[in-house]
Amino acid sequence: MKKPPSFFDCEPIDGEPGWYSWDLKDDTRFNAVVMGELRVRQEGDRARLRMMPERKHTNLQDMIHGAVTLSLIDIALFSGMHMLRESDAGMAVTLELSTQFIGGGKVDEPLDAVVEVLRETRRLMFLRGEVVQGPNDEHLVAAFSGMVRKASAPKAGK
Question: What is the 3-state secondary structure (H, E, C) of the chain?
Answer without folding.
Answer: CCCCCCCEECCECCCCCCCEECEECCCCCHHHHHHCCEEEEEECCEEEEEECCCHHHECCCCEECHHHHHHHHHHHHHHHHHHHHCCCCCCCEEEEEEEEECCCCECCCCEEEEEEEEEECCCEEEEEEEEEECCCCCEEEEEEEEEEECCCCCCCCC
